[in-house]
Amino acid sequence: MVNTMDTAHVDVAIIGGGAAGLAGALQLARMRRRVAVVDAGKPRNRTATAMHSFPGSDGVAPSTHLAAARADAERFGADIVEASATTITSTTPDDFVVTLDNGAALRARRVLIAAGITDELPEIPGVREQWGRSVIHCPYCHGYEVSAKRIVVLDTNGAGTHQALLFGQLSDLVTLVVADGPGPAAAELIRLDAAGIGVVRALVEAVVETDGVVSGVLLGDETLIPADAVVVGPRWRLNLDAAAELDLHLAPHPLGFGDTLVVDSMGRTSTPGVYGAGNVVDPSQQVLQAAANGSFVAAQINMDLRNEDLDRLERAAREAAEWEGRYADAGDRWWSGKPNGTLAAEVSALPVGRALDIGCGEGADAVWLAQLGWAVTAIDISPTAIERANAAADAAGVAVEFRAADVLTDPPPAAVFDLVSIQYPALLKTLGAGPLQRVFDAVAPGGVLLIVGHDQRPFEHDHDHQHKYADYSSVDELVALLPANFVVEVNEVRPRPNPPEGARHVDDVVIRALRR
């Protein structure tokens, strides 16, 4: 669950919990993706009493349909977050931060924007009050229910002729009122006349209702045209305020009623890692089409993530083999068997708790922490290193949970450890920012993240040296990825305590950060 002040890590953050968003969530959750749907609870069709043209659900109330769709997505593990997204930011195509108006945040590898549109109704009294009931706009959504009834089409933006001709298929009692603009062209007037649709040019004063339902349209000259239903053609506004910082391309709709979010055939927007589905990309989609579109785009997102996962696993396997080879070539022991001096200096005054040692090597730091009373989990990518670390713990008579794993593909549990220690990190940046963020997330609120690295400045012109470390995240790069709820208390370069004889690196870069 996503709670206030949390930063939850998910594979996909879906903005919008309508038909497209929930269908996408269901598709992704069934592929065992971690999904969060951010829903403000304001679907476009919320004022309608029923939705139509959806096989198996025709005539069902929109709220009933959405409740069932939510339940389906949640049944497979999707998280529905009742909030509004306020900002979506990113520095890389695999790491997005979605801030919410409830104080929480999501960190996602991909974003699906399915936030829909807001209809901008004509400013005519009575239109808003009856919108979705007796004031409608789509013959496919609500036309059958007004068949053979008195229908008045209000042309306020040039779409009236198109709507009148379609509604004329359902009723012989259609009147087109041209309230603004040039109205029908000569050829269109011929068609309207052939269809038996009368045309009136007049200002519209109000939509009149009697006993809670539409009874007529009052014109500016006080003429009342009897009506059982009124048709309008609203403009729309994309619900994209939260995405203002993303480089999303928009395009005007051919009808000129508003913009659409530009996507390719796979639903990809102009911003890598961001996808779009539903009314935000095509305002003409009914619930059925929006759901189908959301489901399709979600499948493309999953395939994108799967390819990225496989690339990461391949790189991680190569990295593991390289480190295993280094430990094997080092003989019985590679490192000194003593704890890192900077770790000792920074940790000695901390209250003991649960500690995570990332890249623990042969276990000297982990054993030292355990001797101080810490409950230690220690991870290294090399099974040989872990075997030696276990032997060191046994020899010292302390208990340490050692594990051979790659934290970038098998991240530690979130918000568990009072201390996360990363000494002289060798964390591949080629795996993207997301895995590194999940490492930071292992720090519990109030806990400390300690990163100690070699000062690389003396070697900035040593091309061989720079090439050797090019694939690994520097301390500065790790600090740049720290979430906003970390406060850096120490950021300094200092002499390395007791460096090994002949060591090239004599200074340490020390970062100590507190998670709020």
Tally the beta strands.
26
Overall pLDDT: 92
Which residues form runs of ≥5 with pLDDT under 50? none
What is the correct CATH architecture of the largest domain? 3-Layer(bba) Sandwich
What fold name stands as the CATH topology of the largest domain?
FAD/NAD(P)-binding domain
Question: What's the helix count?
Answer: 13
Question: CATH superfamily name of the largest domain?
Answer: FAD/NAD(P)-binding domain
CATH class of the largest domain: Alpha Beta
- Shape, per Cα inertia axes: elongated
Would you write up a description of this structure?
The structure is a single chain. The chain is of the alpha/beta class. It folds into three domains: 7-119 and 236-309, FAD/NAD(P)-binding domain (3-Layer(bba) Sandwich), CATH 3.50.50; 122-233, FAD/NAD(P)-binding domain (3-Layer(bba) Sandwich), CATH 3.50.50.60; 330-515, Vaccinia Virus protein VP39 (Rossmann fold). It has 13 helices and 26 strands. The protein has helices at residues 19-30, 62-75, 127-130, 139-142, 160-167, 186-194, 287-329, 341-347, 364-372, 383-396, 433-440, 463-468, 475-480; strands at residues 7-15, 35-39, 79-82, 85-92, 95-100, 105-113, 117-120, 135-136, 151-155, 174-178, 198-201, 204-210, 213-219, 224-226, 229-231, 235-238, 250-252, 259-261, 274-276, 354-358, 375-380, 401-404, 417-423, 443-454, 486-495, 507-515. Strands 1, 2, 3, 4, 5, 6 and 19 form a seven-stranded mixed beta sheet that branches. Strand 12 and strand 13 form a beta hairpin. Helix 1 packs parallel to helix 2 (62-75), helix 1 packs parallel to helix 7 and helix 9 (364-372) packs parallel to helix 10 (383-396). The longest helix has 43 residues, at 287-329. The two termini are 19 Å apart.
